[in-house]
Specification:
Elements lengths: L5 H13 L12 H6 L10 H6 L10 E11 L7 E11 L2 H4 L5 E7 L6 E8 L5 H17 L3 H12 L5 E10 L2 E10 L8 H4 L6 E6 L7 E9 L6 E13 L1
Antiparallel strand pairs: 1-2, 1-9, 2-3, 3-4, 5-6, 6-7, 7-8, 8-9
Helix pairs in contact: 1-5, 5-6
Length: 247
């Protein structure tokens, strides 16, 4: 892996902030398979169980659009970037889905600045906003360090199944003036990584997911935060936060 200077970070990451979800989410199998697959054998107390231990879409109406606020900021960027991510859900018919009627989901990434649609994907249990988040995240790291996306993805998956690597707490969030019970799951997958020296601030990178069955689609917020290894300031922070459901 190669170390990247702050200027290199800006050159590599600013285009990613302006472009959209890369088609890489559709590379392995189909997008439908990637979005609908269930995680089997979740380890009790792990980040994976905290995030995927309950079905996200059980209370979704047959047709609805979830709107997420997107923010990308930090000292590695010359200026912060904000836009929306839209997930348009349409219930499948029984003949389309077979035994399990899921949703066709069309993603619209950054409609205000560089609109692009992806899909439709098929989602039967889990909110595809997680797919958007983790794919863009490993793309950022790969472009910033020269490392392999598959390596970053595998490390994240491994640590998410380790109960010792997870911090899970019950919290209260506020949405539209209401206080709602929620669960916050945090983990740092690269803290003990063998390539720590090459990872720069990524070695201390923290992921945070907030879920609540009182939020449409169950995922309230997904965030990653990377500190500057020298100053301790936030070098990169990427956040997706639920705003509203449109019907």
């Amino acid at each position: 892996m190669m170390q990247a200077t702050t200027k290199a970070w800006r050159r590599l990451l600013l285009p990613l902030a302006a472009v959209t979800l890369l088609p890489a989410i559709l590379v392995t199998g189909t997008g439908a398979e990637a979005a609908s697959v269930k995680l089997n054998g979740l380890v009790p107390g792990s980040a994976a169980e905290g995030i995927y231990g309950a079905t996200h879409l059980a209370a979704m109406p047959d047709e609805a659009e979830l709107v997420y606020d997107y923010h990308f900021e930090g000292t590695a960027l010359e200026k912060p970037f904000s836009d929306d991510v839209l997930l348009d859900f349409h219930r499948q018919t029984a003949s389309q889905a077979g035994e399990t009627a899921g949703f066709d989901v069309e993603l619209t990434i950054f409609p205000q600045t560089r609109k692009q649609t992806v899909g439709p994907l098929t989602a039967t249990a889990y909110n595809p906003i997680l797919l958007v988040f983790f794919q863009r995240d490993v793309t950022h790291m790969s472009n910033g360090t020269g490392g392999n996306q598959h390596y970053f993805r595998n490390v994240i998956r491994h640590v998410m199944q380790d109960p010792e690597g997870a911090e899970i707490e019950e919290i209260t969030i506020e949405l539209n003036g209401q206080k709602l019970a929620a669960r916050q799951i945090s983990f740092r997958p690269f803290l003990a990584d063998d390539h720590r020296a090459q990872l720069r601030g990524f070695a201390e990178k923290t992921y945070r997911v907030i879920v609540s069955d009182q939020v449409p689609g169950s995922v309230y917020e997904v965030r990653s935060e990377t500190p500057d290894e020298k100053t301790g300031e936030v070098m990169l922070r990427e956040t997706y936060r639920f705003r509203e459901i449109r019907q």
